[in-house]
Amino acid sequence: MAETELQRAEQRYAQAKARLQALKNREATRERKMDTRRKVILGGALLDLANRDSRAAAMIDRLVHNLPREQDRKAFDDWVNPASALIPSTGTDAQSGAGTAAEDDGGRAAVDTSAPSATSTTSASDTGTGRSGQ
What we know:
This protein is mostly helical and 134 residues long.
């Protein structure tokens, strides 16, 4: 009889373990879905902002240009940033001729011309945090 009781206990343990694993799998799936949803929402909000703000449009171009993985960059090869038309509208970019380069290059050239202004913006925010010591 002890063997039968042991077998039933082992069976209950295996069932409980399987239920626990199923719960963990469902939670992991839920978390992945929520993470994906957040990324899609933020991406849409960023694209919407880029349609109204040339700095945001330039930032998207820089982000795509600086993606670390080649396969991720290739996903954007045929994609045209709908907000890239806003990039030449800034005074400094229009004077430097970045508008023509952006049209020829799908907006990628605007990344290089707007990078110094973005760096100076970053430096300004760094000084606001007291990191530069000035």
